[in-house]
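Fold this sequence, please.
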Amino acid sequence: MTGRPRIRSTFRPTAPKPVRAAVRGAGALVACASLAVGCGVVPGVTGGSGDDSITVMTWAPTDTSATNKPGMPALAQAYARWINSNGGINGRKLKVLLCNDHNDGLAAAKCARRAVNEDVVAVLGSYSQHADSFLPVLEGAGIPYIGGYGITNAEFTSPLSYPVNGGQPVLLAGLGKALAADCGPVALVRPDTIAGDELPAMLNSGLEAGGHERAVDIRAAEDATEYSTQAEQALRRATEGTADTDGTALGEPTEEAGKGCVVPALGDRTSTFMDSFRRSRADFPEVRTGTVLGSADQSIIDASGGRSGPYEGAYVTGWYPVASDKRWDAMKKVISEQAFADNRIDAADAGTQTTWIAYTVFKAVVEDLGDGEVSADTVRRKLDSGFKISTGGLTPTLRWRFQDRLASVGFPRLVNADVTLQVVRDGRLEAAREGFTDVTETLQGAEVN
């Protein structure tokens, strides 16, 4: 077995600044391209200077050639309409601003500056691969970032970040642990991006915990229109051998030849990869697949052929219970009442689910503040006080501390290391085992650079 995977730690403990930094720019006024109706407020939601409303922001990429998450801001809109139709939070209306980060670092920073300029209380349930661009802006203004998608390591190091799930680290560690028992050689196909560079170490930490060799690391363009080269490379390497110490070269054929596994982790482009994979798979019928929620969900499985498609038998790790679980009924009721005709919202999408939980956390904080001031500072102080928040069983009870259990491996803000293991049976995504699996020890087994 090769050496342990290394996870790069980027943690630099800096205290959040209590005052607003002078980061407002004229360009910020046009940067927040709303995903529905211009750059501004949810339709029908009252609010503005002098009223008693609470302003928050949700951002995500949409209409791009790479990963898109339009359901996250759409769910935020529906949530605000529901809250406001029921009297607000402690009588305060919820005002939601939307922004499109365009999968671009400059646009992400402009969204953050817009949040500062509009004096938002928090950024909730958002997705961006460019945490290094937007988090410094939020930190300078003291604005908490609650429930980001967990796509970057920076979300688990910033003292202003309050993640509700374990992001890509726990999904891949959990998947690696599950595949270690059932797979021969494993090939990981992931984006050739900064965020993608972080994925192999996570998967390898789980594989190693199960006594398995490291995965072969295959890079791919995030916005490609086909992946035949990568699919053929992954299939060959999943059957002919394992990786050497740098995770790139083939070894000798293994006893498990023909029983390898391919792990596509390409976000929205995973379905594009699977089209290429299906065409290349004829000569490798025994190769199986495994992936993480966000790269595959029920709609993608259906579109790929269901029980006759390439996902049949695949393991899929997720952060939350399966979409059919009754614990999601409250969210589904809100979607039905407030966004029934909005096809951007998929209740089974991990981004939509994360946004729901982020707003659930924020609602609990504001309710606990009672009639007191609701500002970025008061919300942050409440979260930093050890305040415990229940999400109705969708996650463990959440509580953030400056240094948590995974600080030693560079994730001081990672407070939820639970994953669910699901499997595709007869074309349906089902729970492979009951309850959650905590992968804290798996991640702790990884060394830090």
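The radius of gyration is 21 Å. The mean pLDDT is 83.
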